[in-house]
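Page 47, continued from p. 46.
Same chain as before, 402 aa.
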Amino acid sequence: MKSDNMKPYLFENWHIKSWKDFLLLQQPNYSDYTLLLNTLSKLKSANKIVTENEIDQLKYFYSEAEKGNIFILQAGDCAETFDSCSFKDVKLRVEHILNLAKNLEDSIQKKVIVVGRIAGQYAKPRSEPFETLNHYSLPAFRGDIINGIDFNEIQRQPDPLRLLKAYESSKKTYDWIKEITNHTFFISHEALLLNYETNLTHKSIYSDKWYNFSAHTLWLGERTRELKSAHVEYLRGISNPVGIKLGPNANYKEMVSLLKLLNPQNISGKINLITRFGNKKNDLNLENLIDYLNQSGLRFSWSCDPMHGNSYKTNNGFKTRNFDDIINELIHTHKIHNKLGSYLSGIHLELTYKNVTECIGGYKNKLNENNLSENFQSFCDPRLNKQQSIDLIELFLLQRNE
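Result:
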């Protein structure tokens, strides 16, 4: 679809609930609508988690990333859990990511800005709405903000009260982060539950701009970035920086239309494009996409998510990722940017400080498929463990200049 043929109404008449007239994807069905409305009302009057000045500061950093002056490390859990909302756990998560950032910064001699997948990453999109176990089907687990991981009818029913629990946990986590560190540390999550995001979105007291105060930046996933999706409609109206995940099926011309929808004034620092092609498909198609969009005249920064395109299921039923695929995609993406005179200005990783056994391989302490059952803790996607994430940064730094 050509960008100049987009219907005018897509660019006009945005309001805080205009997304309800668009294609709505990946939303839970709540049985108690009255309880949902009461919960959303409480969210609407809740205190802001982040500030407008912090959001604008991150937008400035993304604008500098566009020029290659700054590098962005976006990292954290696949999906946070309410159980992990403790000062000790948050401290260990934050310190690990900051240590990785310091290793990066010391080597590339650029300022590294940390954006955590933390303080709000409680929802997960799913490819299938139901999960079947022993010939019995229940709604899929969609993250603690929606339902519970235990495979029973009560836990798997979407519960509106979990929205409040997610807000309270997110605010508490970010408050702890500010106590823990004097560094610049920003928070992010996927923009998924639009009722939740809408009620934490407010008009600036200084201007006519609207901000989502649940996070400094949000990203638009592969499953929700259709041009006429409700998620795109919502995100085009807020002033936060927005990430866009791009897989191997991304249509070049549609991406131009999407960029114009989300950033019609072509503001620097507004958009971060996050490629996630997978190592096996990380070929000429990625190079053509980067080259095409770089010549569009539109403003955005580039990041690489080498995790999400490299998942597969083992014969014994574990969803995993191979460390070699992850590092190879990252290095290959960096080389393509260099070849084109472009900037790879960020990495987007799912990782943990824990010694989990979720991804196979490694640089120093390699895991194989037989190790996965030893300490597989993720409720959703496999994460790099502490040593693997250190290894990844080390190998990236060793090979990026070759």
